[in-house]
Design goal:
Elements: E1 2-11, E2 17-27, H1 33-42
Antiparallel strand pairs: 1-2
The structure holds zinc ion.
Residues 28, 30-31 line the site of zinc ion.
Length: 57
């Protein structure tokens, strides 16, 4: 398992979402390999909830 930061989003004005914080989640290096690859490609930005099919909200 790897711990990665997941963005906490809040609706600002209009339809824009802004990142107001992060929380750590655990991803399996095998089952979530695609998600982890996406995270490592975008580091140090946190993952967005929409990028994690298994995380739920
Ligand atoms: Zn797994």
């Amino acid at each position: 398992m790897q711990q990665v930061p997941l963005a906490i989003l809040e609706k600002g004005r209009g339809t824009q979402l802004s990142v107001v914080g992060t929380r750590p989640i655990q991803l399996c290096s095998q089952c979530d390999a695609a998600t982890l690859a996406k995270y490592h490609a975008n580091r140090p930005n946190p993952l967005l909830p929409g990028e994690i099919p298994t995380a739920g909200l």
